[in-house]
TrEMBL record:
Organism: Kryptobacter tengchongensis
Cited Pfam families: UPRTase
Keyword Cell wall biogenesis/degradation in annotation: no
HAMAP family cross-referenced by the UniProt entry: Upp_B
Binding site for uracil: 194, 199-201
Name of the protein in its database record: Uracil phosphoribosyltransferase
Gene: upp
SUPFAM superfamilies from the UniProt entry: PRTase-like
């Protein structure tokens, strides 16, 4: 696997992933844990953000402080990526949020797009794509291509669970993208679901499973 893939290894992340995998975890708990786990990942994902110096006046004297140099645009892939947005906004409240609506066709497993809404100046921003599942990689690759067509060049992808097939596709098609995952799972099943995985992330978050 390329060196633009970082598997974030942390005991609290491993503990939280176990709750998310558990089929008996209800949606209310699933959402809270997804948010907490995303916060743990966000700390690592934002580690290389550049700073600008800014003077700040404490009650005692003037000293050097910092502001973030670059604008940040969070891009959740609907629906499941929505479950990761608030954790990033807690840490980067000044970030703007673009949305990409995609779902996988159940037969072909190809992504079908239905919604796009973005802030301006993608070319000057650091883009952080959020989607808990990187399975075949079709959805995230489509999102990256779409963003690049609109000028984005500095792109990070944050997923909880990735399949080897999806990582291979993403690193081959977009070797410049930095990828952060909590775990690399074993394989996809014949329906394109990650094994062992956690099931359909959107359904688990929003309670829409049959
Ligand atoms: O890597 P891929 O093979 O493209 O699969 C991953 C995609 O599948 C899920 O979305 P889904 O299609 O279930 O849509 P939903 O979030 O609306 O349920 C998931 O949230 C990813 O977007
Ligand atoms: O296992 C999977 C694969 C794709 N999308 C999901 O939500 N889960
Ligand atoms: Mg789904």
């Amino acid at each position: 696997m390329g060196n633009n893939l970082l598997i974030i290894d942390h005991p609290l992340i491993k503990r939280d992933l176990t709750y998310l995998r558990d089929k008996n975890t209800p949606s209310s708990t699933f959402r809270n844990i997804l948010r907490r786990l995303t916060s743990l990942m966000a700390f690592e994902v934002t580690k290389d953000l550049e700073l600008l110096s800014r003077e700040v006046e404490t009650p005692l004297e003037v000293t050097q402080g910092h502001v973030l140099r670059d604008e940040i645009v969070l891009v959740p892939i609907l629906r499941a990526g929505l479950g990761m947005v608030d954790a990033f906004l807690d840490l980067i409240p000044e970030a703007r949020v673009g949305h990409i609506g995609l779902y996988r066709d159940e037969e072909t497993l190809k992504p079908v797009d239905y919604y796009f809404k973005f802030p301006k100046n993608l070319d000057k921003s650091i883009i952080i794509i959020l989607d808990p599942m990187l399975a075949t990689g079709g959805s995230i690759c489509a999102a990256v291509s779409y963003l690049k067509e609109r000028g984005a060049s500095r792109i990070k992808v944050v997923s909880l669970i990735a399949a080897p097939e999806g990582i291979t596709k993403l690193t081959t098609e977009h070797p410049d993208v930095q990828i952060y995952v909590a775990v690399l799972d074993r394989q996809l099943n014949h329906k394109g679901f990650i094994l062992p995985g956690l099931g359909d992330a959107g359904d688990r978050i929003f309670g829409t499973e049959n």
